[in-house]
């Protein structure tokens, strides 16, 4: 089984480098226009419940059934959502979070450990279900954070958390062959279904 883990298309917040997190931001018109249909058609696509993921999936996989998975939603950045790092450069809570490697709990939000546990649990369940059903593809459209959490934990060759973030409309194709024996996935290639 091939797993295709994609990041949603661009939003206004992406263009302004704002933390979006769990805030339900739609794709921007430029983000919608940049996307183009994928070169394969899965039977279903699993999506984050946030509209930017569902909109992206509808463009990449027109007519394909979407199955929302709440645990694939982006990290909850709490008080940091809707703001840029520049706006928070002197915010002591933000500085402490960044200086702690972005591991601590965001005020009013999640810690990276909580977020990664949520995402990895749901992702592993989808892989298990896909293999059990004999699916050829497991297609997921979610977020940059979702990619980073799942692939830091499961992908080979190993990379650090922040090294797994794809551009908007981009992502990774992985081979599930090593999953049953090692709970790992082999990276095949990076893909992008958006024009610059």
Using brief descriptors, characterize the structure shown.
196 residues; alpha/beta; 7 helices; globular
How is this structure best described in words?
The protein is of the alpha/beta class and about 200 residues long. The protein is built from seven helices and seven strands. The chain has helices spanning about 10-15, 30-35, 50-60, 90-100, 110-135, 145-155, 180, and strands at about 1-5, 45, 65-70, 135-140, 155, 170-175, 185-190. Strands 3-2-4-1-6-7-5 form a seven-stranded mixed beta sheet. Helix 3 (about 50-60) links the parallel strand 2 (about 45) and strand 3. Helix 5 crosses helix 6 (about 145-155). The protein is globular, with a radius of gyration of 16 Å. The mean pLDDT is about 95.
Oligomer: single chain
Instruction: Give the topology string: H per helix, E per strand.
Output: EHHEHEHHEHEEHE
Query: What class would the helix/strand composition place it in?
Result: alpha/beta
Taking the alpha carbons of the first and last residues, their distance comes to 29 Å
In short:
With 196 residues, the chain is of the alpha/beta class. It contains seven helices and seven strands.
Record the SSE blueprint:
Layout: E1 2-7, H1 12-15, H2 29-34, E2 44-47, H3 51-60, E3 65-68, H4 92-99, H5 112-133, E4 137-142, H6 144-154, E5 155-156, E6 170-175, H7 179-182, E7 185-192
Helix pairs in contact: 5-6
